[in-house]
# Entry
Amino acid sequence: MANRKQNSANKLKEVRKNTYFAKYNNIPTSPRKMRLVADMVRGMEVTKALGVLHFSNKEAAARVELLLKSAIANYEQKTEHKIEAGELKISMIVVDEGATIKRLRPAPQGRAYRVRKRSNHVTLYVDTINKESK
# Structure
């Protein structure tokens, strides 16, 4: 049994060598707002996505921009060369729900309203653009 686990762990390591991603956990923004920003840049070329995120009015765009820069740096570190324009694209971006902090807000006649402060986790994968397919 240990041999089977070791083989599957080795296969997973090989797959991760060619996977370039960055993850940002517990962002204090609701997942719904973050998904709006994620949908803006999904599938885009990296330098174009950086421009879109930089000039976006949404607060979540600044956090996704930092995450994209981190994913680019991870790619450069693993491949040991700088990226060029048109080389990388956002292959996948996933926004998952994080922990929800629950608070109470005073309401009239001795009641209380529940306030849910949501958070999310974002995972961003980058991959090379195939020149042959163009």
